[in-house]
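Entry 14. Structure prediction run on the chain below.
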Amino acid sequence: MSAGGRPQAGRHILMELGFSARRSGDELRGTATVTPPMHVPGTAQLRTSILATWADTLGGLLAAHAIGPRVPVTLELDVHLFGPAPGSGVVRSTGRVIKAGRTVFVAGVDFTTEGGEPVATAAMSFMSAPDPAARLPARLSVDLPPDPDGRRLAVPLAERAGCQRRAPGLAVLPRSEDGLNSSNSVNGGLIALAAEEAVLSLAPGDALCSLGLRYLQAVRAGPVVATARLHRGLGQVELRDSGHARRPPVRHRHRPHLRRELPLT
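Output returned:
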């Protein structure tokens, strides 16, 4: 462990969310247990960005099976909650193929509690990475077994990822080796975290009830700078790869919707 309780680089940040998946017929079934470090700050609710991360994981595994050995990259991802996210217990997810086209792959994911109560629904689209050198392993399983070490987040997710709120409406996420995806760019789930943090810095104690992400370009240099605006409960976030100053500034656009919850008692 490094100073501050953060594990050293080399172990992927998102492995510590404890998410596992297995194939069931044409579907992928995922499961994870919600713990306090996964909560939205100031609440007892699971982060919407974590649901986005799990949806992206299931959809990415399905896409990899369909278009491999080419590497799939996320184009769009939307998550919509039916109510406040749970703060404890098991969350189950079911991922399925919606469309497997020649250029775009589309998947859907439904989330429920262990008892079957609907939590959220998600949809996402993927395309092949433009870099022809980016290739998946020849033998690829769509199953995602539980982490054999069993280690889980010891600190809140934003702290673990090094994502900091620098000012109201401004969050910064560093690029780190333990936060990359298979195309060597910042993981899409961590991009969602940066967008979420930027919006929540304008509405402390609230949680996102909807999150829409449009991935316009990969973040390869970092840090990611997320700038949010909020009006009547609807936020818009622009994210920049600040290490690539010569590129067009907007890398991602996100439209998160806020849900104001009753104070905790």
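The chain has one domain: 13-137+154-259.
Filed with the rest of this week's runs.
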